[in-house]
Amino acid sequence: MSKGARIPLRYLLPLTLLLAIVLVLLLEPRRMQRSRELEIERTAAIVEQVRSIGELSSAGFYEELVLTDRDESYFSELMRASGLSRLTGSGDFVIICKGRVRAGFDLTKIQESDFSFSGDTLRLILPPVEILDVVLNPADYEHFSGHRTHEETTAILLQAKQRLRSDAIREGILNQAELSAEAHLRRLLSAMGYREVLITFSKEYPFRPGE
Questions:
Q1: How far from each other are the two terminal CA atoms of the chain, in whole angstroms?
Q2: pLDDT at site 40
Q3: Taking the mean position of all CA atoms in its chain, how far away is CA 55?
Q4: Alpha-carbon distance 156 to 93, whole Å?
Q5: What is the edge-to-edge ordering of all strands in the sheet holding 196-201?
Q6: What average pLDDT does the segment 4-19 reach?
Q7: 119 or 129: which carries more pLDDT confidence?
């Protein structure tokens, strides 16, 4: 080919296409790497924002209990059998308790692997719902009758807390907490620009729901 020769037109288009393919092959790994970096940055930012909520209390339960610790001593049984307990008292220890139970999620347990993205759709797996606490303050119970030592009274109040917890679970506080948390987090994450937010719940309870 002479110095001033030109590439025939019939070869120009294939060469242009070949050059475009080479450029795409060279630039695509960089584009994919940058896309992955942006995805990692976005995930980390969302995880940090959700974790910053900390403890999400999303359901509550209130109950008033009357607890009786029966006096099983021989003297008390004799007094009951004779009918004298109506005059002197049975010796049973009775207190009235007003307790509160909170259920929700510890969002600090969320990991980056719990999030996945597809376009403008976000999927999130929440950690197991928990009973966050059972509150029974000294001002929440009233001594009605009978006498017990401080240690015995403390043990009875512990039983009251266990009953409050069981009653709350039986009344569906865990399901209520999931529904409320789902609505709250969907609003939060939708405000970040996601058209669809799909939330699922881990069912690996740290206790049996019937406990």
A1: 90
A2: 62
A3: 8
A4: 10
A5: 115-118, 121-126, 196-201
A6: 62
A7: 129
Distance CA 147, CA 172 (A): 35
Position 65: which residue type? L
Kindly report the backbone phi and psi dihedral angles of residue 118, in degrees, each rounded to the nearest multiple of 5, phi listed first: -150, 100
d(CA 23, CA 16): 11
What are the backbone angles phi and psi of residue 89, rounded to the nearest 5°?
A: 95, 150
* CB-CB neighbours of 163 under 10 Å: 16
Contact between residue 73 and residue 147 where contact means Cβ atoms under 8 Å apart: no
Pairing status of strand 121-126 against strand 130-135: unpaired
Residue-level length of the chain: 211
Strand 115-118 to 93-106 pairing: unpaired
Q: In this structure, what token pair is assigned to residue 94?
A: 């009775």
- pLDDT tens-place string over residues 31-89: 555 555 556 666 777 878 888 888 899 999 999 988 776 555 444 444 444 444 443 44
Nearest of 140, 210, 129, 201 to residue 171 by alpha carbon = 210
Q: List Cβ neighbours of 7 (8 Å cut-off, separation of 6 or more).
A: 15
Q: Which two tokens stand for residue 190?
A: 């939708």
pTM of the model: 0.65
Q: Which two tokens stand for residue 171?
A: 């009344």
How does DSSP classify residue 192? Answer: T
